Amino acid sequence: MSRFVTVLAILLIIPLVPAALFAGGDTKGGLSSSQISVLRSSFKVDDETRAIMNAVANNKLREIALDQEAKNAAGMLFSDKIETKGVTDQSSTGRCWMYAGLNVLRPGVIEKYDLEEFEFSETYLFFWDKIEKANLFLESIIERRNKSMDDREVDWLFKHPLPDGGQWNMVVALIEKYGVVPIEVVPENEQSKQSKVWNGLLSRKLRKDALELRRMHEKGKKLRDLRARKMEMLEEAYRVLAITLGEPPAQFDWRYEDKDGNVSEPKTYTPRQFYEEVCGVDLGEYVYFLSNPLQDFGKMYEITFDRDMYDRPNMTVANVLIGDLRAYTLKSILDGEPVWFGCDVGKEHFRDKGAGMMKSGIYRYDAVYGVDFSMTRKDRLLSSDGVPSHAMIFTGVDMRGNDPVKWLVENSWGTDYGDDGMWMMSDQWFNDYVYGAVIHRKYLPDEVLAMLDMKPIVLPPWDPMFDAAMWR
Hints:
Layout: H1 2-13, H2 33-42, H3 47-58, H4 61-65, H5 68-72, E1 80-81, H6 96-113, H7 122-143, H8 152-159, H9 168-178, H10 190-193, H11 196-218, H12 223-245, E2 252-254, E3 267-269, H13 271-279, E4 286-290, E5 299-303, E6 315-319, H14 322-334, E7 339-343, E8 349-352, E9 355-358, H15 365-369, H16 377-382, E10 390-400, E11 403-410, E12 422-426, H17 427-433, E13 434-440, H18 446-451, E14 457-459, H19 464-467
Parallel strand pairs: 4-6, 5-14, 9-12
Antiparallel strand pairs: 1-10, 2-3, 4-13, 5-6, 7-10, 7-13, 8-9, 10-11, 11-12
Helix pairs in contact: 6-9, 7-11, 7-12, 11-12
């Protein structure tokens, strides 16, 4: 009788045990032959599925998933626009943050001198950004000379010696120290348009130099010896950059022709004098905001190594709700001031000659596969699926009553994409994928200005907030 009760108990328990434990007996996480059979049997090929499989096999996936109705409903009419002229092209480089920063300043120069178009030299600032980043890397290595190679900060530095990517504070630091020049003074060349090869070579050289500095320290060399050798290394970096990009001028002559054909008298400037006289904008009056749900809102954050100059502070950001970020941006645009912003441009964007849009739901991958691919804003960042990657500027908005329905974006991908380089962003896409924006203090409420006086919480460079603030 007891044996019968035992068998009965086992039979009653079995249905409660996960089926996977009995599929081939594999309880260690591997896929058994029985489990593979379960996967095979779960996929049923009916006529509808066969048609989808054929479409996927013979077409580009984005073209299949593109929602034509959503695409056609976009439109490029905007109720409020800031006049801009000309579209820039960062080519195959990670300089979007720099282009966006200079593009914010362009409309003021065009209006001030009544020009048909105007562009600053991005190559000029590119040169100095690389020199400063090279010094930041080597000096940071010297500073950590007593730490082992597997120290997390040392390891991070060796992995990121000379990135193209940057941030708003780097725009400000470069302009304040080196000024700006017109593009005709330092034009683009083949290398400034394609940084991968030469930047890789210079990164290799800097890693080699960093190892040498560490070995000098191990042999008992003094700090002054390391810094003297560092300067010799920077001379070599300067040579590489001068050969590659051209040596930046200490002064130059500039004259301009306005849209009525009037030509000005030439005038000699230093790059800093040119910025002060021609632009005259106080970049210190702008505040950088992020909306990062991985950190507490209403607080200030400082991100280690988020700078390009050793003797400048790290980037500090105010973390606010996305609705607040949107409200500050809207106030600026409606007042005629363009806004520098950063986003995850790779998500749900359509680009083609004559059309460019960032619109949530424009691709229906869920309909193609019958699988839910959606994630929350927070989970995308937490899992590294959200990769804030690109900086641009807002130059307009389309209002319906008091609410924006779409935004006008000036990109730096030339005129081959978008509507002659201009893009439409839906308001929902803003809420989903915009992560940061730079706003003038005059558009901020008092409670937000007070927030700027908080002591920032310091985060390491491997924190997801770093990626949320490093635009490429």
